[in-house]
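Supplementary Methods. Inverse-folding protocol.

Structures were first reduced to a discrete structure-token string of length 431. This string, shown here, constituted the complete conditioning input.
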């Protein structure tokens, strides 16, 4: 058990009274805090105050060494607290105060006058929740009354409830938690405690079983939700994917549509004849042959261990290569090196850095100076201070699935939260 010494003023209706003086705009202002411990709602409180200057000398008010302070229009419920109620002091020289309760006014019209302190001192024993045995006793008692924290105590002029509240000798019920006095002491007998502990253990077993059942039900529920959500997401993704492709009702329809020659940028070519395909290059005499595996309802075919997606506009896409229907290869003597990368073909220009009340905004353009069409072009912006330090970053797709054809330009926008230190921007291609 944990022993706790209590000193209680039986005549006071408040506790934890604190007060302080602060000078605000050359006007000394007092701040008061307290907790209502009377079992009614407090509407007003009157204090008797004394004021002192910085040297500790009493400041007289109208030839009196004390003054009254009335705090009204309150609504402080039982065990409720007010913090830093402020009032202006009657003399500008006051820097320290002493407050003594004088009267209390409650919502039902009751007025109680505070005459002088009436202190009693006693010691209670609180249950130690870190002790296994005491924690079990406390948990068992709280099945009856959740407010229990200590053993009840009988005094000459009153009794202390298991919730820690002092009650007068004639109070048969605790004014704080409502526990009857006879029960408070009866619960502490060995016979009743043993019974309460046994009941608590049974309830704990029941709660654990119920918790496990709830956990299993939730696991099943969330698993079903997860499966449904995943299936729905797959359907959405599948719809998005298929929306960008040309699909066919049968292998025969797809095979017939794919027959002929498909060329990428004058240097790489596929020729499809029936279920067979041949690939050749302008810079080489090498040819690759293989049988095509058709997937008409998915809008692609597999060939040479690669996936070729059929897009609208008579186009077959293999990774970054876009083959268009027809076309011819350059002669090997004029072809040279025909490889082109996005980093050399896409140029960033027209960068502008602006701001508004919430964001730093960068706008710019990307232009395709190459010979290929580029899709899903990602750019990254580094927002910097005047010394070149990167303060924030953002990225976006400057070009999406629509693609950027040779000679075309497109604007983009990047933004980060407002920062007045940002003065420069650098934008680079990242994918």
């Amino acid at each position: 058990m944990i022993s706790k010494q209590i000193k209680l003023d039986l005549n006071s209706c408040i506790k934890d009274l604190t007060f302080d003086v602060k000078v605000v705009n050359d006007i000394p202002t007092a701040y008061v805090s307290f907790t209502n411990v009377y079992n009614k709602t407090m509407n007003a409180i009157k204090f008797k105050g004394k004021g002192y200057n910085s040297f500790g000398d009493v400041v007289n008010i109208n030839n009196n060494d004390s003054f009254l302070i009335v705090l009204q229009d309150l609504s402080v419920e039982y065990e409720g607290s007010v913090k830093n109620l402020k009032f202006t002091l009657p003399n500008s020289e006051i820097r320290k105060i002493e407050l003594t309760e004088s009267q209390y006014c409650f919502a039902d019209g009751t007025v109680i006058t505070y005459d002088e302190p009436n202190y009693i001192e006693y010691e209670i024993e609180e249950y130690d929740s870190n002790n296994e045995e005491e924690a079990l006793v406390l948990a068992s008692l709280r099945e009856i009354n959740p407010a229990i924290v200590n053993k009840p105590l009988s005094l000459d002029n009153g009794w202390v409830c298991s919730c820690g509240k002092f009650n007068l000798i004639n109070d048969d019920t605790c004014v704080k938690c409502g526990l009857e006095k006879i029960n408070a002491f009866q619960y502490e007998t060995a016979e009743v405690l043993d019974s309460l502990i046994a009941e608590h253990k049974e309830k704990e077993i029941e709660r654990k079983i119920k918790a496990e059942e709830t956990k299993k039900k939730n696991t099943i529920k969330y698993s079903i939700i997860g499966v449904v959500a995943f299936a729905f997401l797959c359907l959405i993704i599948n719809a998005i994917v298929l929306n960008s492709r040309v699909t066919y009702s049968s292998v025969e329809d797809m095979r017939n549509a794919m027959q002929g020659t498909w060329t990428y940028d004058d240097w790489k070519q596929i020729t499809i004849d029936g279920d067979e395909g041949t690939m050749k290059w302008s810079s080489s005499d090498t040819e690759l042959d293989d049988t095509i595996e058709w997937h008409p309802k998915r809008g692609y075919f597999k060939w040479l261990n690669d996936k070729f997606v059929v897009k609208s506009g008579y186009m077959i896409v293999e990774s970054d290569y876009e083959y268009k229907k027809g076309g011819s290869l350059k002669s090997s003597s004029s072809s040279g090196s025909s490889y082109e990368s996005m980093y050399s073909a896409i140029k960033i220009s027209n960068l502008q850095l602006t701001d508004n009340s919430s964001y730093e905004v960068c706008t710019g353009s990307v232009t395709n100076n190459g010979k290929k069409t580029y899709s899903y072009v990602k750019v990254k912006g580094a927002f910097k201070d005047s010394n070149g330090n990167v303060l924030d970053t953002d990225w976006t797709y400057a070009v999406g699935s629509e693609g950027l054809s040779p000679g075309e330009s497109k604007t983009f926008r990047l933004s980060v939260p407002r920062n007045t230190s940002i003065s420069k921007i650098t934008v680079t291609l990242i994918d």
